Each structure stands twice: as structure tokens, then as C-alpha cells.
Amino acid sequence: MDQPKLERLLRLMKLLTANVEYSVDDIAERLDMSRRTIYRYIDSFREAGFVIKKSRGCIRLDKESPHFKDISQLVHFTEEEAVILRRAIESIDDTNLLKQNLKRKLYSVYDSRTLADTIVKGRNSSNVHSLIEAIENKQQVILHNYQSSHSIRDRRVEPFAFTTNYVNVWCYDTEDGKCKIFKTARIDSVETTSTAWQHTEQHREGFIDIFRMIAQPNAELIPIKLHLGRLAYNLIMEEYPLSERYITQLNDSRWLLECKVANLQGVARFVTGLLDDIDISESPELKDYITNYINKYLK
To answer: What DSSP assignment string belongs to 96-129?
Structure first.
């Protein structure tokens, strides 16, 4: 989620929790938003656990809700939703004061260990807990018997960030001298060492595109441009909601998606199932990839 959108959500939350009641038109005027946008945000709040109350044409958060105990608990987040919110907060520039304030408020309700307990189960849970502590204490760890695509061996790394739901962890690999992403489910065990981080200035997360494909830091991204019909537009908004920021409506039945991707695998899977509703424009690499992909499996 980009910072302007996050700020709009917070401004809307502030109005909905004020002692003064506002109609949707009032809110639209105060926040300079369309009615459609406000209703979409309100639906998102409701799905996340807000109790929405309507009265005399006005709309607000119900303060009688059992979740409404104090300012830090205006909304009941599930732990998974709180993880996603944490990732959104982490995406804000480090120099922005808003980031630190938001992190402090979120962590006053849900700490990392609580989130991990809810989301991660089994053997993986203890490994994630060890990684959380290593990140908090800025320590190197050894990932014992990590199963990559090519080998099973120990990796000495500096973990510094998780992806959503603790599926992956970004680390600086001390042997290879670069940042990598490791799947937490492929780690046999985590040994925390007494060595502090030695390469903090090189800790950088890679790029995750709208189709959830991952590129390493500084990797060259691939530009794509797709013309979408209504079916393709609806499906991409449902399955890959981050695509919204890269989509422009051309008319009542056509939309343009223009963005960069980490690789062609994710977008190709999406396009292949909707070839009759998607036009590939100015993306020769993607056309070639899909052609080869289809020919390979037809044979």
C-alpha cells in the first residue's frame, strides 16, 4: 500500500470515530474523495472487523462494539490482517515520522510473537520465533540444512525482514555477500549465534511484483503493458489487489495495466487463462514467453 492511500485511510478512520456525525457526501467533501472510493474503503474496514453504524444518513464506527475499548483498539484486526498492515507500514520511507508512530500503535496491540503464534504452526513456529528474536537483537543466525533447489546445507545469514505471513525471510548471506530470500518452511532449524550483524548497511529487501513474484535487490525488472477486458479486470482486482495502482480505465469495458514485474512466470500464468480477454501490448518478451510456454505443453 502506498503512503498517500494509507494516509487517506487513516483520515477516513479519524472522521468515522469523531464525535460529530458525517454523511458520505460530507466525508467526500472534507477528504476530497469520490463517494465510490469512500464506499470501497468502508467495505474494506467492515471486512477487516470494523463495526459500521448508519443513522439518519450518517455513517460512523460503533463505539459500543466490544472491540472498541480504547484508541489503540478502534478496530479488531485478525493477526493475519495485522501482519499485512505491518508490511504496509514498513513500506513507508524510513525518514517519515508517520511510520514510527504507526508501528508503535500497532505493536501496542499485537507484537511479532503473537502474530507468529497465530499464523505459523508446527516445527516452523520455533524457527520463526528464533528469527524474530535475531532480527530484534540484530544477530547472525545459522539456518541448518536449508533446502534450496540445488542443495541442502547450512547458511550463515543476517535476517532482517519477513514477507507477509512469515512465508519468507530476507537475509544477508554472509558467504555469498548479498541479500537473499529464504523460505521459512525449508529451514530445518535456526541457531542464533553470538555474532552481531556485520553488514547492516547492505540490508535491502528485493522487489515483489503484483503477481507475488520476487526479484533480488538491484535486479532488472521487466516492463509489461496489458489491455484488459471486464473479466480480466475483475479477476486481477480480486486475485492481485495491488494491481489497482497500475491500472487505468480507458472506457466502459477496457482497462490498461502498465507496470514492471520481477519475472514473466506470474503474469504469464494469469494471461494464459484469459487470452480471449487480454491484449498484450508493447511487451514482446511476454508474448515470446507465453508462446514458448504454450508450445512446450501442447507437445
So the answer is: -HHHHHHHHHHHTT--HHHHHHHH--THHHHHHH
